[in-house]
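seq:
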Amino acid sequence: MLVMVFTVSLTVPYLGSERFGVWMTIASFVGMLTFLDLGVGNALTNKVAQVAAGKDSAALKTTISGGLGFLLLLGCVVSLLLYGLVNVLPWHHLIKLKDVTLHGELLFSMGVFAVLFGLNLFTSGIQRIFAGLQRSFEAHLISVLGSLFSLLALWIFTRQEAGIPYLLAATLGIQSLANLNLLLILIRRNLFSFRCLIFNTRLESRSLLHVGGLFFILQIGTMVGWGADSLIISSTLGAAQVAVFSIVQRLFQLATQPMNILNAPLWAAYADAHSRGDKEFIKRTLKKSLIGTGGFCLLISAILLMVGDFLVEIWTGNEIRIPVNILFAYASWATFMAIGNALAMFLNGCSIVKQQVPTVMIFLVISIPTKLFLINFYGLEAMLIGQALIYLIITSVSYGIIFRKKLSEICV
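struct:
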C-alpha cells in the first residue's frame, strides 16, 4: 500500500501527467499479460493443495519442482517474444502521446518490461505454490520485504528524477527478485530440487496444461475485459487520461486491496475443504467472505468519495485533478470487482471453472463494444458505470440463476 502511495507522490511532480500515464500504461500490462503463463500458475495452486492434502511428500516435491521448472522455461520464452515485439508493434497508435520525444523512452521501457515480466511469471508461480500449501502468510512477509526495498529504490531514483525504465526496475523488478527468497525456503524444506528438474518438468507439464486450459481462457477474458482498460483509455483519450484513471484506481485500492489480500488464501482453503467434502466450511466461509468484502468496500468507498478529491490534491501536488463523477463511477466498479474476486476464490478453489468461461465470454462480448462506445461519446465516467452495471447483471444472472444448482451442490 505504501509503494502504491509513493509511486504517485514521488513521481508525478517531475514526470508530469503524460509520462506518468505512459508508466502506468506499461505497468498495467502486468495484469493484462498474466494469461501468458497458460493458466499453469492457477492450476498449480489447485494441484499443490490437492496433493498436499494427501500427505505424500514425494509427490508434492515432484509437483512443485515440475511446475516451477515449466514456469521458468515459459518465462524465458515469453521474455524473448515480448522483447521481439517491442520494435514491431505500432506504439504511436496504441499509446497516444502529445510529446513525440517520449517515443524513445517508451520503446526502451517496453524492452525493460519484457525482461522483467518473464521473471515475474516465474516468481509469481512460486507465490502460487505457497498459496496452495496454505502458507500465504510467508509469501506476504517476503512481499513486505520486497516492498520495503522498492520504496528505498523509488526514493533514490526519484531524487535523481530517473526515467520510466528505472521506475519499472524499482517496482516490478525488485518485487519479483524478492520472491526468489521463497524458492530458497522450498529448497530448505526439501519441496524443490534442481535434480531431475527436466524430468519433473516433462512429467508435470502435460497435466498442468490440461488443468490450466480453462484457467488460460479465463485469464484471456480477464485481460481483455479488465486489464485492457488503460490501453483503451490511452488509445482513445490519450496517455494523460490514463494518469487520471490510474490515480483513481490506486486511490480505491485502499478499499479493495485489503480484502483481496484476505480473500486470496481462501482459494487453497476452499480446494482443501472441497477435496475433503467439508461443505459446512465452504458455505460458512463463502458467506462471511462475500458479506465482509462488500461491507468493507462500501464503507471505505463512501469515505473516499467524501475526501478523495482532497487526498488526490495533496497526493499529486495539484498536478492532477479528479472530477467527483469519476470518483463515484470508480467506487461502484471497485466494489463490484472486490465482491467478484471473493466469489472467484470460491469458484476456483472448488474447481467450478467451466461455468466461469461462458460468463466471462458473455461479459466480454457485451462490455467491450459498450465501453468503446461510452468512452468515445460520453467520457471515462460513463465507461466505468456502464462496465460496473454490465458486470453486476451478468454475474447475478449467471451464478444466481443459470449455475445456481451447481453452486448449491458444492455448498449444501
